[in-house]
Amino acid sequence: MNSLTHSLTDLSTVLVDLLFMPLIAFFVGLLMVLMMRKLSARLQRRIGPPFFQPIYDIVKLYSKSTQVSHGLIHEIGIVVAVGGYIASEILLPVPGMDGIADKGGIITLSYFLMIPSLGMALGVGQCANPNGSIGISRALTAMLAYDIPFIIVVFGVATHYQSTSLIGMIDYQQAHQWGIFEMPLLAAAGLFALQGMMGKQPFEIYVAPAEIATGPMVEMSGKFMGGLFVMQSFQFYTAGVLYTSLFLGGGNNWPEFLLKIFLVVSIPMTMAFLFPRYRTEDMVRVMWKWPVMVALIGIAFVM
Amino acid sequence: MNNLDQLFIVSLSGLAIVIIIGLFLPRQATWLAKLSPLLYVGQLLLLIKMASLVYIDAGSASEIQSSFHLHLLGEPLQWRFDALSWFFAIITVVAALFAALFMSGVWGEDYRKKTSANAYTMLHLGLLLNVNSMLLLLASGDFISLFIGWEFVSWASFFMMVLNPQKVARQAAMKYLMYAMTGAMALLAAMAYIYDISGSLQYDIVRLSMSHLSSEQIIPLVILFVVGFAIKMGVIPFHLWQAVAYAETPAPGAIFMGAISARMGLYAIIVVLFQLISMDNFAYIHIPYTFWNVQSVLAWIGALTTIIPTYIALKQNDARHLLAWHGVGQGGYMLLGLVIADNVGSAGGLLHVFNHATYQAALFMTVAAVMYRTGTSNFDKLGGLVSQMPLTFMVMVFSIIGLAGLPPMNGFVSKWMVYRSLLLDGQPLLFVAAVIGTLGTILSVYKLVHNTFLGQLRVEHQEIKEAPLTMLIPMLLLALIIFVTGVMPGLILDWIVPVQAAIGLPPLDYHLGGIILPTGGLDMIWLTLILFYGFAVGAVIFYLIGGRAKHVHQYDNYAGGHFLTAKVRYHYSHNFYAGLMHLIGGWYRGSFVRLEKAIVSLVSFLSQLAENFYRANQPTMLVVAVVVMAIWGIAVGRFG
After folding, report:
1. Are B431 and B303 part of one and the same domain?
2. Residue B131, domain member (yes or no)
3. What is the DSSP letter of B260?
4. Which one of A236, A302, B29, B109 is CB 3.0 to 4.6 Å from A32, fit for a cystine?
């Protein structure tokens, strides 16, 4: 009887996590999108959009009358892109909610985060537009570029904490010291990789946000674009939480946690407006050189 | 007569039936073709009866001895099955069953019409020969039977390769033969060396004498064995022969050989390096004048085998060649995982043998189906087939997710285990190498699926239909296996753990959904549920909220103000990763190809020299010989 109640409580906890973890991620992600726009506006001496602008945008995109679909895979691509992130959020522990983070650690999460890219790649592929395909070829190349320093960082961090579980890593940091103080080189390399992972300047050629007609989003209209907008807010949130869990000790409570993740994503967002754009191959070159070098030296310290 | 004897009898009588019908009753050959999967079903049933080798009860034996014995040069020859043999055998037979299913239907009819009834019977014969010889090799119980099995496997593969009469295939087969001969010679030399050391070729005696060998004795032995077996596996630097040879074989041959054939090399490596010598010793055997030990050298060979062939695959412009190159590359993960020799990594390497067989067979089937409908596997002549062949596309997507090692398909689990053990073992560079291989695979498989199924549909393909049912059924079954064993890897880990015990490795702690580890395990059942929950929420958001999407024709597309018509090729497929190639293109220097060419030139030069020597003028040679002898005699007399 006791074990039954126990498992029932477990189940209800998981169900609550399933509902709230993605929901929180969504709203926090929207706030991050707002922050990005506000930051860029302030840096360019504008006022920037009103508070609810990200929501207005989503409502606008979803309710457009022109919604062009190039077939089932085009639609499934968007579903997978959004769904993959929703699933990933449940693997990311936040204060008070661990979701199923104990069922798969950082390696699993790194591979979960490739599923949305694959979904989007398949969706864009079916649009039969060469501009979209070129965008995907660049996006996958970019993934090859930023994932190598990122994975070295993951290796170093997991070796240092002697665990691949994010919960274990956060516990370690809260008992000892934040990872950023114990592994400053890995933290720096991780931040560099984050810039590419979030697709911010100078590494935004594969998103091509400024020239939609010649990038992967060329055939995305209405809610297809809306889905990608939602995906972007999840992406910002994921990047912030992941970095916070690896290097900033996770969070004891929500205000502290939110402060940390907003701080983390504000760095790439600010940096973005200081740089022009790199070509794909230049992005690969710079990613394989500096962050990889720094991360390898960082690993030498933790081994 | 026990189950192993019955297995050999069933397997050989299948061969006899095919030969008799092919020779004397050619009219019945079509019936034979339809019923040929039954031959493998029989073998599969016998293997299932032997399943006590892996599902160990209290009373079950760890080995099944065949009652068939031979004596050769005073050495007894024996054949037996243990958990390791069983594991490889069941993959072999199931792969052959799927290949036979695939060719028993429309594909076979088509092949028979295009070639001849005789050629079609030969294809069946080739498949049976391959299965027979592999079972013989897997059952070998001493070095002589190992060598016999090894040679049969080599020649059976060669038989399969030359069934394609085209020049490129014949050349690849000849090249393979040269490699196989080299490997056999290395193996023979190693056996001679072993006989010299231990005075026997029986595994038990050899195992005993191996334990007190010095490292000066072990290193040449390991080199000879690894060269012999690694050639079959296509490990660096012997990777050049395999891809073309497998890709150009007729489709069922490519399905079967791509799935399992090259793994016979891995099996033999396991027998020698794990069962006979034990991998634990290798970490202590240092290579003279370096910081390396034998284990780390083997691990790096595995890691380079994951990287180099994978990036060669990335450059291929033909679906079959791309897949075959990946087959070479994935072998690297298996070797890498095994060589780490801890419980997680070795289980990952072994599990990858099974996983690779499933998705590689499925992928070759999808490509064969596309070739059946369109007549080509050239990326420049395909595109947009998803609207015409949606189920084939689905199978390909399932399989490429497996090949790329992304959740929730089975390839993810085995690669995760390899990564995890590299992490536990503290091997950052090997870990990064493994990940570089995986990332290259993701790029390459997207190119495969994009250039075949996505993008613009060509005018000449607009009337194409879905692949016929006889092709779809094996494909869909394989896709199901890929998914189910991905979600419940415990089903296959049931087989792996006894294998680990049989080859002297620590067993893995696992459950149905994955791996138990104190510092972060894996539970695929939960992960898959969560993933599908995510997709479900994503689908609700997409389909229930917002306006209705309107389906448009592919020419109703943004083209910078131009109108698209059927005449306009609006597809990006050639040189798909132009940006990346701009950077790494220069790294493809073909060093191995040049090395191969240099060796070929050297050998032909030496043989020419020898031939000239033999044909030279006899009296002149006599004079030269006398002079040389005289000088030598004087020198010895004077200074000796």
Report:
1. yes
2. no
3. I
4. A236
**Alpha-carbon gap, residue B10 to B494, rounded angstroms:** 27
Among partner residues B393, B557, B582, which is closest to A129 by beta-carbon distance? B557
User: CB B75: neighbour CB atoms within 10 A?
Assistant: 16
Between B106-114 and B29-49, two packed helices, what is the crossing angle to 10 degrees? 130
A contact residues 267-286, partner B, Cβ 8 Å cutoff: 279-281, 284-285
B570, B588, B606 - which closes a domain = B588
Main-chain phi, psi angles of A100, to 5 degrees: -115, 35
pLDDT value, residue B312: 93
Please tell me whether residues B606 and B541 are part of one structural domain.
no
pLDDT band at B149 (very low <50, low <70, confident <90, very high): very high
Domain boundaries, chain A: 2-44+69-302
C-alpha–C-alpha distance, residues B239 and B159, integer Å: 20
* B331: pLDDT strictly greater than 70: yes
Has residue B42 been placed in a domain?
A: no
Q: Are residues B580 and B602 in the same domain?
A: no
Residue B550 β-bridge partners: A68
Give me the residues paired with residue B79 across strands: B140
Contact B213, B240 (CB under 8 A): no
Could you tell me if residue B527 is inside a domain? yes
* Partner residues linked to B345 by β-bridges: none
- Binding-face residues of B in 557-576 toward A, CB within 8 A: 557-560, 570-573, 576
In this complex, is the C-beta atom of A294 within 8 Å of any C-beta atom belonging to chain B? no
Q: What is the pLDDT of residue B116?
A: 85
Residues B413 and B529 in one domain: yes
Question: Over the stretch A107-133, which tens digit does the pLDDT of each residue have?
Answer: 899 999 999 999 999 999 998 888 889
Same domain, B437 and B489: yes
- To the question of pTM greater than 0.95 for the whole model, the response is no
With H, G, I as helix, E, B as strand and everything else as coil, classify residue B550.
Answer: strand
Residues B386 and B330 in one domain: yes
Does the interface ipTM go beyond 0.85?
Answer: yes
Tell me which chain A residues have a C-beta less than 8 angstroms from the C-beta of B432.
148, 151-152, 155
Distance from CA of A69 to the nearest CA of B (A): 5
**Among candidates A133, A164, A165 on the partner chain, residue whose Cβ is nearest the Cβ of B572:** A133
Whether B602 and B584 map to the same domain: the answer is no
457-516 in chain B: CB under 8 A from chain A: 457
- pLDDT at site A99: 77
Residue contact A141–B456, C-beta within 8 A: no
Do B474 and B606 lie in a common domain? Answer: no
B48: Cβ contacts below 8 Å, ≥ 6 apart: none
- Please give the residue range of the domain that contains residue B573: 296-506+519-588
Q: Which of B552, B571, B588 marks a domain boundary?
A: B588
Interface of B with A in 116-145 (CB under 8 A): none
Write the single-letter amino acid at B403. L
**B144 near B77, Cβ under 8 Å?**
yes
Is-contact B479 B322, C-beta < 8 A?
A: no
Looking at the structure of chain B, the number of domains it has is 2
The token duo for A5 is 């109640």
Instruction: State the CB neighbour count (10 A cutoff) for residue B455.
Output: 27
- The dihedral of CA B445, B448, B453, B454: what is its sign? positive
Helix (H) or strand (E) holding B66: strand B64-72
Q: Are B369 and B452 in contact (CB under 8 A)?
A: no
Helices marked H in A44-91: 53-62, 72-90
Residue B76, H or E segment: strand B75-81
- The encoded tokens of residue B193 equal 């060396």
* Partner residue opposite B522 with nearest CB, options A68, A108, A128: A108
Q: What angle do CA B183, B188, B191 make, to 5 degrees?
A: 125
Structural domain includes residue B382: yes
Residue found under tokens 């419940």: B488
CB A111 within 8 A of CB B407: yes
Any idea which residue has 């613009």 for tokens? Answer: B456
